[in-house]
Design a protein that fits this description.
Oligomer: single chain
CATH topology of the largest domain: ABC transporter transmembrane region fold
Strand order of the largest sheet: 6-7-8-3-9-10
Number of domains: 2
Strand content: 5-15%
Number of helices: 20
Order of helices and strands: HHHHHHHHHHHEEEHEEHEHHHHEHEEEHH
Distance between the termini: 48 Å
Number of strands: 10
CATH superfamily of the largest domain: ABC transporter type 1, transmembrane domain
CATH class of the largest domain: Mainly Alpha
Amino acid sequence: MRGFGSAPSARKAVSGAVAAPEVKIRFWSAMADLFRLVLRSDAPGLRWRVTVALVFTLIGKALGVVAPLLLGAAVNRLAAGQGGAATVTWTFAGLATGWALVRFISSAAPQARDAVFTPVAQAAQNRAAVETFGHALSLSIDFHQSKRTGSLSRVIDRGARSMDFLLRSLVFNLGPTAIELVMAAAVLAKAYDWRFAAIALLTVGVYGYLTFAISDWRIGHRRALNEADAEAAGRAVDALINYETVKSFGGEARAVAGYGNALGVYGDAQIKATNSLTLLNIVQSGVMSIGLGGMAVLAGIEASSGRMGPGDVTAAVLILINLYAPLNILGFAYREIRQSLIDMEAMLDLRRQTADVADRPGAIPVPPCADQRGGAIAFEAVSFRHGARSEGLAEVSFSVAPGHTVAIVGPSGAGKTTLVRLALRMIDPQAGRVTLDGHDLRDLQQASLRRAVALVPQDVALFNETLLSNIGFARPEATEADIWAAAEAAELGEFIRNLPEGMATKVGERGLKLSGGERQRVGIARALLAQPRVLILDEATSALDSRTESAIQETLRKARAGRTTLVVAHRLSTIVDADEIVVLRRGRIVERGPHADLLAAGGEYAALWRRQTRGRGPEA
């Protein structure tokens, strides 16, 4: 269990952690993808909302530059004092009021923009999450087996949320601020002198360069801080989850020491991160103060020479201060924009993944079943080998006639699970073909195929929903009476009626509030509700007690009427009445036939039978 090593070794492990490789950011490609997602977001009033939001943004920035000029004119008029006192007062009041109004509009415009654009941003975020989630579900089983479910969910979540941040920070903040800088430089050069524009451009340029440089340097500190935080949290969670193990081996002191050491590493990383942020803030304040000082000195010189009034000095300084306000969070915005671009790129990379198993162009729904006894499924010279295995299926051929039951047995790794996945078209054969009622599964629509073939797996996973919802998942249009009938058929009715909330009982994450046997009975009920023409049982009674297993076996025998059944079994006593038993070994069929014939042959199946029935007396 992680977290109980000695403190020094733990410290070394944390401090020496290898940072994740940098992700290459394709900026313009990401922006193009972001723009396309916004366009297909189907937000209400998409076009006018985007247009109005951009107009509000530009108005706010333009008025932010103009407002100081009005205040400067008001101060100049007041300082000049020409005319009557009332006239000067009213003129100053009018200009000052105009400045306040323009400043209010420039401040209110971004708020109005957010109100107008939020539905678009939310719709685009939702569309991105839904499309990516749907694409992830469409990917093949091999892809999901190689990914951590939690990390995959985080990729979708962070990628969708990154869109909102990029839209607000990049499109509506930093981008327009660059436009505001150009407008401010033009106004300063036009109204006063080119040197004012040069000071503004130089100040913002140096400010931006140093901010980006220090922020890039700080990324390493932030990464170390995040890794130390994750390590400390992981040690605490590990110890709390494995509380009984810690207590059993007297490991409390070791657990606490490991957690304390991890917090020490986190504290060191926090100090470095805080100090680097302090340095960034000091440098930013220093650059802006120098720029403001230079602007004020130049304005003072011009005013003393009579080329500018005192109000113009105020206006010039205020224009630069207005530029400083959005740049104040440039370091934070730069780091978050980089991370958002990385998150968005990870989401887009997920969307670029292609499914190994996909519907062919022209794929058809499964035709109606011609035989009332069920469908006919056949494996014709099927071969398949996983990349992680040295052996796989090799030219396996057998068929299951309508209404018949065929059992697949063999040692672990023989290929039984692979056959089940082929029958459900979770994977495609690398050679040969699998057919349902004579149709190659690759020519059938997957959604239609999964309605015709139902699986009861060995480990039934349930949603954190009610029993009614979990059983009804197989057939959404089923009535509650249909669901109850399926539950009764799976020997689940009495159990559900004894629950305080009955069918409304929530089963917990993955059904962990139920016992293994209860979960399997829910899985059987779900499969029976689907009314498939082919029923696949993958050790469907392995977690049941003998009495319940016997009852469900009888139920399954009745359920076989009107459908074909493919059974994967380790417990051979459950398949003695199968019409045919296929014995696999190392991906090949080594024996096949009814139970009695295989016992009489004295081969692989007979050996398996003897091992399982040893000590229980002779069986026939």
